[in-house]
């Protein structure tokens, strides 16, 4: 048997934020097909599989369709479980070796701060006809690291009212996209939504890795190193960003929902 946890990330309340599975594996990673099937069985957008390696941890992320190089909410969830179960002391730094990056996580005042890479943004053009089809006004658009697209919309209201359709987004080459706008309230600086039908996720509730691009764009646009972001999906989630040392520092909270034993 193997223990799996489910955690709600980027929230301080159960049943909000973004749920992720976390499996701590003592004897190395499972077969890839088995890890993929576990994600499908859990019916969550991602599961993090974690293996200890001396004073660090190897970590892999799977969606229902594929392995991905980076996942913010699953990283936060995995760190939360390691601290909560006292595999790591709250005074220590967790280092995850992911597919492309080394991720550092610290416990700060009961919250978790993740050190993530800055994503590269390359301008792209969204045809007016495509904007009309989606019923949005795109002010700027970018191709982003790890196959993302970033679309900056004209208003939060427009972003909130957008109704995603998986096939339509994929047909337009937007099957892994971050939509964002400046916030219309002083409680946060920016808002966003993320659509990932390419990976079997129509709308991701809260997407930490998307902020590797959002932080880069909005810190320059708003001329600040500090940003408060809210992902305005149905479940909603809040993140605080700090841009420094060529990295994106993401602060968030998490709540353990349950743990279970898998008969594998």
Write structural notes for this entry.
The protein is built from 6 helices and 18 strands. The protein is an alpha+beta fold. The protein has 2 domains: about 1-115 and about 250-260, Diaminopimelate Epimerase, Chain A, domain 1; about 120-245, Roll (Diaminopimelate Epimerase, Chain A, domain 1), CATH 3.10.310. Strand 16 and strand 17 form a beta hairpin. The model has no long low-confidence stretch (mean pLDDT about 95).
Outline:
This protein has six helices and 18 strands. The protein is α+β, with helices and mostly antiparallel strands and 264 residues long.
Query: Percent helix among the residues?
Result: 10-25%
Structural class comes to alpha+beta
Per DSSP, the total helix count is: 6
CATH superfamily of the largest domain: Diaminopimelate Epimerase, Chain A, domain 1
Q: Strand fraction band?
A: 35-45%
Question: Uncertain segments of ≥5 residues (pLDDT<50)?
Answer: none
- What's the overall average pLDDT, rounded? 97
In CATH, the topology of the largest domain is named Diaminopimelate Epimerase, Chain A, domain 1
- Top-tier CATH class of the largest domain: Alpha Beta
Per DSSP E runs of 2 or more residues, the count of β-strands stands at 18
Termini separation comes to 5 Å
Overall form: globular
Q: What is the CATH architecture descriptor of the largest domain?
A: Roll
Described by strand count, sense and barrel closure, the largest sheet is: 18 strands, mixed
Tell me the radius of gyration: 18 Å
Q: Would you list the SSEs in sequence order as H and E?
A: EEHEEEHEEEEHEEHHEEEHEEEE
| Count of domains | 2
């Amino acid at each position: 048997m193997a223990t799996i946890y489910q955690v709600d990330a980027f929230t301080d309340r159960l049943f909000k934020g973004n749920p992720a599975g976390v499996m701590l594996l003592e004897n190395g990673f499972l077969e890839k097909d088995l890890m993929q099937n576990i994600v499908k069985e859990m019916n969550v957008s991602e599961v993090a599989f974690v293996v200890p390696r001396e004073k660090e941890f190897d970590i892999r992320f799977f969606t229902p369709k594929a392995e991905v190089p980076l996942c913010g909410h699953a990283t936060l969830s995995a760190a939360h479980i390691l601290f909560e179960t006292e595999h790591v002391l709250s005074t220590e730094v967790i280092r995850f070796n992911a597919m492309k990056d080394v991720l550092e996580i610290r416990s700060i005042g009961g919250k978790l701060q993740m050190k993530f890479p800055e994503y590269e943004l390359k301008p792209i053009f969204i045809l007016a006809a495509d904007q009309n089809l989606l019923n949005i006004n795109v002010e700027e658009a970018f191709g982003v690291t790890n196959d993302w697209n970033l679309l900056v919309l004209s208003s939060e209201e427009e972003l909130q009212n957008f109704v995603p359709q998986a096939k339509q987004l994929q047909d337009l080459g937007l099957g892994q996209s971050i939509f964002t706008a400046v916030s219309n309230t002083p409680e946060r600086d920016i808002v966003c939504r993320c659509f990932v039908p390419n990976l079997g996720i129509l709308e991701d509730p809260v997407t930490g890795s998307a902020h590797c691009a959002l932080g880069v764009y909005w810190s320059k646009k708003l001329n600040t190193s500090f940003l408060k972001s809210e992902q305005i999906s149905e479940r909603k989630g809040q993140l605080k960003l700090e841009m420094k040392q060529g990295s994106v520092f993401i602060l968030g909270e998490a709540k353990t929902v349950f743990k279970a034993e898998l008969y594998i």
